[in-house]
Amino acid sequence: MITAYDSLFAKLFDGEIDIILVGDSLNMSFRGEQDTLSANMEIMLYHTKAVCNGSKNSFIIADMPFGSTVNKEIALQNSIRFYNETCADAIKIEGGIERTDIIKYLTDNGIAVCGHIGLMPQNVRGDGGYFVRGRDEISQEKLIRDAKALENAGVFLIVLEGVLENVAKQITESVSIPVIGIGAGKYVDGQVLVWSDMLGFFIDFKPKFVKQYLNGGELVKKAVKNYSDEVKNGDFPTRENIYK
Ligand code: KIV
Questions:
Q1: Position 201 pLDDT exceeds 90
Q2: Measuring CA to CA, how many Å separate 110 from each of 45, 103, 116, 128, 154?
Q3: Which of 10, 42, 107, 190 would bridge 51 by S-S if both were Cys, CB 3.0 to 4.6 A apart?
Q4: Catalytic residue list contains 161
Q5: pLDDT for residue 203
Q6: Which residues lie closer than 8 Å to 199 by C-beta, 6 or more apart?
């Protein structure tokens, strides 16, 4: 799984990657905000539509933004908007056992729901920061309870973020649905990375768990400097770059 926020990159990822997640991480890496909390339904619908325009083969999951699932009815209305207005195959909701009433209501009403537990970026202000989960027994047990509760509520997939590898293994073994890890080690069923982190376009910081497969930021900077220099010194445009 990889995130995408627009048609341009969705087209490049399409078919190479099983699942494209239109994650609310776009609020940080694409919109330049400090956290994901100011992403709203209109923003998520806009980006999901753009991804749909680029991807014809991958399974598309749209993130429910902060505040869009505060109760059953609001959560259902907002989920239905993704199905009515975009091509999303499923939606993703952050939260464990405390959100399973809402999640069950959605799955009972025909919505395909992906869960998201462990480090939940939408809780950053409530939690007072981002930190790894599963360091003590109480939090390990809670994570396993969360995963089982989500499975019972009908979710088809769980994203597990920022969890110690041995704990992620136990969580994965405790449920029969697939668990996709991010910063959760290798004993899960699949991996997800934020595209702009793994391709090196997000240059503010690199999370420790990310492997950079491309230094996109450096390549782009070099290319635009080259362009600017060539315009200034008259090397661009040449006869190759004009209409004849
Ligand atoms: O918003 C997002 O991109 C996510 C991933 C980090 C899993 O939720």
A1: yes
A2: 19, 11, 19, 35, 10
A3: 10
A4: yes
A5: 86
A6: 212, 213, 214, 216
- Residue 86 in contact with ligand 1 by CB distance below 6 A: no
**What does the pLDDT look like over 63-72, one tens digit per residue?**
999 999 999 9
The closest residue, in CA terms, to atom 1 on ligand 1 is: 23
**What would the two tokens of residue 172 be?**
């994965």
Residue nearest ligand 1's atom 4 by CA: 23
211 alpha-carbon distance from chain centroid: 16
Q: For residue 3, which atom of ligand 1 is closest to its CA?
A: 3
Domain boundaries, the chain: 2-213, 217-244
The percent of residues in the chain predicted with pLDDT above 90, rounded, is: 98
* pLDDT for residue 158 is more than 90: yes
Alpha carbon of 63 to ligand 1 centroid (Å): 8
Cβ 119 under 6 angstroms from ligand 1: no
Active-site annotation holder among 33, 42, 161, 218: 161
**Does the CB atom of residue 3 touch ligand 1 within 6 A?**
yes
Is the CB of 162 inside a 6 Å radius of any atom of ligand 1?
Answer: no
Stated as kind and residue range, the H or E segment containing 161 is: strand 157-161
pLDDT at 157 over 90: yes
Does the pLDDT at position 36 exceed 90?
Answer: yes
Is CATH 3.60.10.10 the right assignment for the domain spanning 2-213?
Answer: no
